[in-house]
Amino acid sequence: MSIFFRPAFRGAVAFSSFGSTRSSYKSSFNQCCRRSFRDDLRLGQTRTTLNSRKYSTKQDGPSIQQQATGKSTASSSSQASQNFKTRQEMYKQKNQTLLMYSVSVVLIVSGLSYAAVPLYRVFCASTGFAGTPIVASGKFAPERLVPAQEAHRIKVVFNSDTSEALPWQFVPQQKYVSVLPGETSLAFYKAKNVSSQDVIGIATYNVTPDRVAPYFAKVECFCFEEQKLLAGEEVDMPLLFFIDRDILDDPACQNVDNVVLSYTFFRARRNERGHLEPDAPDDVVQKSLGFDEYEHKPKPEERSK
């Protein structure tokens, strides 16, 4: 090839190369456009799917927000249920505690009421309250049972009464005895059942004046005990007592010369607790125990003896 045709040939080759390159660029551009169109199409489909899920009906199932709300509601319901159970257990424990306290109070009150009569008798017998002679064992020490020879004698008058409902004859076998403080004395009462059937009786007692009761001690007596007499039966009831020497140290008893020991027999009955008690109105029983203003006094002829 001549030298004049070389540049022309080179230009043709270059133009041919440029054309092929342009075609290649155009093909690449078309592919990119198609790919971008497909991507846009997919993106549109994805958005449509998400929107359809977001605005789906209940038949298609709950949305993510609804699911989250449902989980929160379920958690709150579970917590509320747990709190309710906890409060219920606390109330149950409080009710059980209150029930135990109530039962304890009822049992204590019932026990005290059941033991009221025996405790009252023990109290009266220990302190001499309301004219009740003392029967405490501490009073019976040998050194206390020594007569006070330098003291004046005290006349003890015996009195007896029976309830109208009791078909008994009940009388003291001696009207009175004179004793020194610290000197023991034995006396007797006689009781007879004048009915045609067996009868159970029970006796109450008191001492007057009341200020002497703390020093009047009974070693043995038949008071507050069941005494059953068969039809027509007659028995002797012993009473062993003494007046404590401490009475000499009590200024209120310095001028006491006469003491009355009164016994009252009632027909016995069992109360709802199973204890024997006098079958008589309460005011009558209280009077027999010395809870009244009436004070037994020896008769003038008895004082002169």
UniProtKB/TrEMBL annotation:
<feature type="compositionally biased region" description="Low complexity">
    <location>
        <begin position="65"/>
        <end position="82"/>
    </location>
</feature>
<protein>
    <submittedName>
        <fullName>Cytochrome oxidase assembly factor</fullName>
    </submittedName>
</protein>
<dbReference type="GO" id="GO:0005743">
    <property type="term" value="C:mitochondrial inner membrane"/>
</dbReference>
<dbReference type="Pfam" id="PF04442">
    <property type="entry name" value="CtaG_Cox11"/>
</dbReference>
<feature type="transmembrane region" description="Helical">
    <location>
        <begin position="98"/>
        <end position="117"/>
    </location>
</feature>
<feature type="compositionally biased region" description="Basic and acidic residues">
    <location>
        <begin position="293"/>
        <end position="305"/>
    </location>
</feature>
<keyword id="KW-0812">Transmembrane</keyword>
<dbReference type="InterPro" id="IPR023471">
    <property type="entry name" value="CtaG/Cox11_dom_sf"/>
</dbReference>
<dbReference type="GO" id="GO:0005759">
    <property type="term" value="C:mitochondrial matrix"/>
</dbReference>
<feature type="region of interest" description="Disordered">
    <location>
        <begin position="275"/>
        <end position="305"/>
    </location>
</feature>
<dbReference type="InterPro" id="IPR007533">
    <property type="entry name" value="Cyt_c_oxidase_assmbl_CtaG"/>
</dbReference>
<feature type="compositionally biased region" description="Polar residues">
    <location>
        <begin position="48"/>
        <end position="64"/>
    </location>
</feature>
<feature type="region of interest" description="Disordered">
    <location>
        <begin position="48"/>
        <end position="86"/>
    </location>
</feature>
<dbReference type="GO" id="GO:0005507">
    <property type="term" value="F:copper ion binding"/>
</dbReference>
<keyword id="KW-1133">Transmembrane helix</keyword>
<keyword id="KW-0472">Membrane</keyword>
<comment type="function">
    <text>Exerts its effect at some terminal stage of cytochrome c oxidase synthesis, probably by being involved in the insertion of the copper B into subunit I.</text>
</comment>
